[in-house]
Amino acid sequence: MKHTLLLALIFSVNLMVGGCAHSTPSPTMHTAVPMAVIAGGPVAGGADTIPGGLWITNREQLDDLTKRMFESSRIRSQGAGLPDIDFSTEGVLVVWMGRKTSGGYALELMAQQAEIENRTARVPVRWIEPRPGAVVTQMMTNPYLMIRLARGGYDTITIFDPDSAIQMVVPATAN
Question: Which residue of 13, 68, 123, 130 sits 20 to 30 Å from the alpha carbon of 22, by its own alpha carbon?
Answer without folding.
Answer: 123
